[in-house]
Each structure stands twice: as structure tokens, then as C-alpha cells.
Write a structure and sequence with these properties.
The protein has about 160 residues and is of the alpha+beta class. It has a single domain, classed as Gcn5-related N-acetyltransferase (GNAT) (Aminopeptidase). About 25% of the residues lie in helices and about 25% in strands. The chain is built from four helices and six strands, in the order ββααβββαβα. The protein has a six-stranded mixed beta sheet with strand order 1-2-3-4-5-6.
Length: about 160
């Protein structure tokens, strides 16, 4: 995917010489992804399962900061799908250093655009209570028909 010009927050007085870009390349260094997830306090997951989840996802979208030759993973999202009507977005994460500056919104908008280009019309996700308002501002809403999700977990 081409580079997308986006504002990047200045840190430590550094000039804003960075570009942020998105990629759908599935060849992501799993240790970089684990570091990103650690930064937001997510529980660690077995890397073999993360690799399998990425391989079997319908869409994998990563967000990168590029400063000169140096590249850093700063965001990630993926979606599963029935390849016709429905997709569910999973694992949306933005590094804390890049939160509250529009990059999470950009990541989600790019995710939605990619899914819509594949003619997916029904996009769902699960949201922790502290991020529900973020997703509402992006147009997500609780099921308008009042259907509640159901879950099965092993004992």
C-alpha cells in the first residue's frame, strides 16, 4: 500500500520527519507485534497461535511509522470473514505513544475501506467498555435489533 501522509506527534523535540503508512503484508515480525500488544497491556498469547490467526484472517492491516530508514510497528488490526457478507474486526491496537492523535481512527477507517472494497457489507467487532465510545464515533452501534452475542468457553 502507498504511504499515507498523516500527522505524527512530536516527541522529545524531534522534527516531524516521519511518515505513517499502512500495509496488508502478512509477513509481520511476531515479536514486534508482541511488543506492541505488551505496550497496551494485553495478555501474552502463544506466538504459534498468533501466527495461525494472522494466516487465516481475511484482512491483516498494520500501521507503521517510517523515519528515514527506520520503521516501527505502531498499529495493527485484522478481520475474519465469510468472504461474502460479514466480517468481524479483531485485535485493534495502537501503541500508547500514538494514541489520541487520530491514528486509531485512521487505522479503523482504513480497515473499513479495505473490507468495503471486498464488498463486505456487515462489519462487527467486540469492544471493551473503555473503548465503546471510540467505536461509536466511527459509526459502530450496539445491534439495532437488540441481539446479544453468545459465547462458549471451554471449562
Amino acid at each position: 500500500m502507498p504511504a499515507v501522509a498523516m500527522p505524527v506527534p512530536m516527541r522529545d523535540g524531534q522534527p516531524e520527519d516521519a511518515q505513517v503508512f499502512f500495509s496488508t503484508d502478512r509477513e509481520i515480525d511476531l515479536y514486534d507485534l508482541e511488543e506492541l500488544c505488551d505496550a497496551v497491556g494485553w495478555a501474552r498469547r502463544p506466538l504459534r497461535k498468533v501466527r495461525k490467526a494472522i494466516q487465516h484472517s481475511f484482512l491483516v492491516l498494520s500501521m507503521w511509522e517510517q523515519r528515514g530508514a527506520k520503521r516501527r510497528l505502531i498499529g495493527f488490526a485484522r478481520a475474519t470473514s465469510d468472504h461474502a457478507f460479514n466480517a468481524t474486526v479483531w485485535d485493534v491496537v495502537v501503541h500508547p505513544d500514538y494514541q489520541n492523535c487520530g491514528l486509531g481512527k485512521a487505522l479503523m477507517k482504513q480497515t473499513i475501506e479495505c473490507l468495503r472494497r471486498e464488498d463486505i457489507s456487515n462489519i462487527t467487532l467486540f469492544a471493551d467498555p473503555h473503548v465503546v465510545d471510540f467505536y461509536r464515533r466511527l459509526g459502530f452501534m450496539p445491534d439495532p435489533e437488540g441481539i446479544k452475542g453468545m459465547f462458549w468457553y471451554p471449562d
